[in-house]
Design a protein that fits this description.
Chain lengths: 479, 479
């Protein structure tokens, strides 16, 4: 069994070095690979299959709310990017520029989209004329590029995959309702499918999106106590509409500007899955997002009847709508267990000649490693039950972890001590001034994560300046 | 009814000007829109929904053959692109170059992928070590860029969407088998789903892919008699493996080069759907690919009971797994009919107060315009039957059109006359020399479309030079 341990031993333990543990997991679980393209990664089959499931689940939820998918160009001419002042200031320093097409220099250089607000505005300015043309509720699945200096797989890379929804509405109220609606779609998706509890709230002006009137966010807490911005939804008001002249003739025949929103979720959620649920044996995937939910692993697969029974079990699980695979490779069973654990497959079925003699098999949960001896004809029902339990358990564990790593502080000294000694969310009151936010960032490398919708009055004064407090804010160090 | 005709009148008839008819259809059916990005288009909801169905159907077929999806970077460093000589010569003149990241010039410029052979080779050179690592059967869905001078929606644009499969195998035989297997997947998909008959064959050396040992193709014929290359599958032999040093230790412990393939299908198939099935009222979509298969159009929808009944019919059709929509907008019924026809929706249900009184509705086929009076509770069954019939009819019509526009010629004079007077496929014998191919292209602007798998001996001599003929070839002018 010495060999079997090798795969696990190849992972640094997360207590020793969380960053190295993360890198080990993404590479050993074969989610990503390195490339000759600096700052860019390959998303391998095991990683891309997770993204396909995320896409499938989100896309279905989007369409239920009336979203239509489109595809816009990947290039943005410089003059188009520059139309909205805040937006270009936010993005110009981090875009990739195309300057030549074929053998010739371009008349106007173009950037590869870092986000597509400007392109959607270009589209809406052509297609929106009357109130009958509204609302436009479009989304696209694509990749975007931001020229990051330091990169980490899924969390920060020069190119990443995402969806970006862009809508145009007749009224401010409708735009605000859509902004909140999509934030709720993201929150429900994270909690129900990814088993990641989130805090919903609004970004401060300092942290909001370049060009937005209001940015809403869902924030989650990773195992190491760092925060991860997990999805954002922006209300642009009519700022972009004015910059791009997107007007419609209302029922009363007057021209009005549209109100716009945008909202996005990215492949960084795969990073969140790793850092919320993973352990020192590798990835732990919530069943609802796991590409493979059950792995059947035969023991002594060359013995008479073992492979037949294993195939039979696979078919029975498939018939019960469970995503199942059979590992019939030539590796040792121990090695296969280790691989199944590394890849985070929620349940495995172990099956050897003796089990078959007794008409049973062993089911093992990935999350708790509990073992269950189950008669063969009851495997599909038991597996389905375990998958439900694992999904619930992962959510509950993540919630308990977040709760036990959320600290209420009322003084700056407490803030200092907490942020440095107890990684997690800090809840503290804030006066609403940019200066205090800047000071906290400078002193502690912590940022305001959000002004949560669910407010509490922890104290009457700002944790930083002592002036009257306006809002409770979640603070933390973040990815 | 004058108004209702306007939409149709907005389309040029295809007999008058086929190119303008095409442009009118793609814009009036709202498949694409123009943008401020030169040579690039927006794919609007009606167009993107077709692409989603193509993706869904192809992806399912791919996965049944063991394909795994991945995602590779969109950028290719110049040094990587240059590794395979033929390949770089084929693509370098038409790529877009990124020269700056953020505010700084790049040390090495990178192109936006025109295709990803070099990136997959980079990946395989890292990941393939042993025969146990083979085969690799990867695919990615993405957009690619080729700096075209003249562009047409779907057929030729600077950026387009596609899938590109890339595989690596232990033996030449396995690679060849995969190349043909994927060609067959494309051919079956075109014929069964898109209702487009195809000719399967091999490209001549002149027309094969840059860097390939053999390129196989499926060729289809458009309504105007021009050919469209509809899908290609390439066998690279070990050429790329040698350029990128992709070797594996075989069972006998010797190092061997892998054998590779690639294969792709693109959004140009939406152009094919338009040009094979469309008519002077707009788009005609085969039911299996149509995002909406049945449109329910109420007549006098304000009259008591009409909307209730229309909703009931929509729900009944939905329950029968038919993709159905109800047009409850404020437009006139005639305008709605015209829109449904323009968008190519295969069947419409017309339903007014009188119909309801009689317990019936009118079903109208988009392809033949035949009308059927159907009792309301039989609508789902009748609609399903009509959808099957339309699918078959469109395929048969396209096949009959191709057959009646395929001409066998044995002399150069006949070739001349046919290519100029009777647009379509020309079948003629060929000696196998590049010179004859070049001459035919120069004289007639016609290219060899393929050397079909199904050969016939039309004559013993080359149609061009009179030397002994080796193969029958399909020739034609092409998109
Ligand atoms: Zn303060
Ligand atoms: Zn010849």
């Amino acid at each position: 069994m010495a060999k079997d341990k090798k795969l696990v031993e190849a992972i640094t333990s997360m207590e020793d070095d969380f960053a190295q543990w993360y890198t080990d997991v993404v590479t050993k679980a074969e989610l990503v690979g390195y490339t000759s393209v600096k700052g860019c990664m390959v998303i391998k089959p095991a990683g891309y299959a997770i993204w396909e499931n995320i896409q499938h689940e989100l896309d279905r939820r989007f369409k239920e709310t009336g979203v239509e998918n489109v595809y816009l160009p990947m290039f943005i001419p410089e003059s188009l990017l520059e139309k909205e002042k805040d937006h270009v200031e936010g993005f110009a320093p981090e875009v990739a520029w195309v300057t030549h097409g074929g053998l010739e220099p371009l008349q106007e250089r173009m950037c590869v989209r870092p986000t597509s607000e400007t392109l959607f505005c270009d589209l809406y300015s052509r297609d929106v004329h009357s109130h009958r043309d509204l609302p436009k509720i479009y989304n696209q699945w694509c990749s975007v590029v931001r020229w990051e200096k330091t990169t980490r797989p899924f969390l920060r890379s020069r190119e990443f995959l995402w969806q970006e929804g862009h809508t145009a509405h007749a009224t401010a109220e409708e735009a605000e309702a859509r902004t909140i609606q999509m934030l709720n779609v993201y929150a429900d998706f994270c909690e129900e499918v990814l088993a990641i509890p989130v805090i919903k709230g609004r970004k401060t002006d300092k942290e909001k999106f370049a060009g937005a009137e209001a940015t809403y966010t869902i924030e989650s807490l990773m195992h190491d106590g760092k925060a991860l911005q997990s999805g954002t939804s922006h209300n642009f008001g009519d700022g972009f509409a004015k910059a791009f002249d997107i007007q419609y003739a209302d029922k009363d025949n007057t021209l009005k500007y549209v109100h716009q929103t945008s909202w996005g979720m990215t492949t960084r959620m795969i990073g969140a899955l790793i850092m919320v649920h993973g352990d020192n044996s590798g990835l732990v995937l919530p069943p609802r997002i796991a590409p493979t939910q059950v792995m059947v692993i035969p023991i002594r697969q060359d013995a008479a009847g073992v492979m037949d029974k294993a195939l039979e079990i696979r078919e029975a699980l498939k018939a019960a709508d469970i995503r199942v695979k059979l590992d019939d490779s030539e590796k040792s069973p121990g090695w296969k267990f280790s691989e199944q654990e590394m890849r985070g497959i929620p349940v495995r079925v172990e099956l050897g000649p003796k089990d078959i003699e007794n008409g049973q098999a062993v089911l093992v949960r990935r999350d708790t490693r509990e073992k269950y001896i189950v008669s063969i004809n009851e495997i599909p029902a038991k597996a389905a039950e375990l998958l439900e339990e694992i999904q619930a358990n992962l959510y509950n564990k993540a919630l308990a972890h977040r709760n036990s790593h959320t600290y209420d502080v009322t003084t700056y000294e407490e803030f200092d001590k907490t942020v440095n000694q107890r990684p997690g969310f800090i809840r503290a009151m804030w006066c609403g001034c940019r200066e205090c936010e800047d000071k906290i960032k400078e002193d502690f490398a912590a940022t305001s994560r959000c002004i949560p919708f669910e407010q509490e009055q922890l104290s009457d004064v700002c944790v930083c300046c002592g002036k009257p407090a306006k809002k409770m804010v979640y603070w933390g160090r973040a990815y």
